[in-house]
From TrEMBL:
Belongs to the AHA1 family. Pfam families: AHSA1 (PF08327). This is Uncharacterized conserved protein YndB, AHSA1/START domain. It comes from the Bacteria. SUPFAM superfamilies: Bet v1-like. InterPro entries: ASHA1/2-like_C, START-like_dom_sf.
Amino acid sequence: MKTKKITVETLVPLPVEKVWTLWTTPEHITKWNFASPEWHSPKAENELHAGGKFNYRMEAKDGSAGFDFEGRYEEVTPNKYIKYKLADGRVAEVVFKPIDNATYIEETFDPEVENSIEMQRDGWQAILENFRNYAERNI
């Protein structure tokens, strides 16, 4: 049975070019790529082109847990679209759509089987909102 994809979304009050830079540059990724204040992303590597690899380290600040969020890009259209395949074979897509002087971000991904759909949606949405908050502080 094929599991339905999960979609999260947000609106960032910045032009798409600025949003793209904050989303894709390792020095920025480490500042927003975590779901809660108890976690952080101490390292990010990003080869942003079709066939390029990425690896974002996510860890609990107390050292109790951590994992690498990694995969390979399948498609990259600057300021518009990213499609990637995670190391476990799941696929995710991110759409960046300019709306006036803001950017709508829609992220759709294949769920994994270990956690509930709700937990996954909430976690990815929390990271997306963390990104929006970070972007708003970098206007």
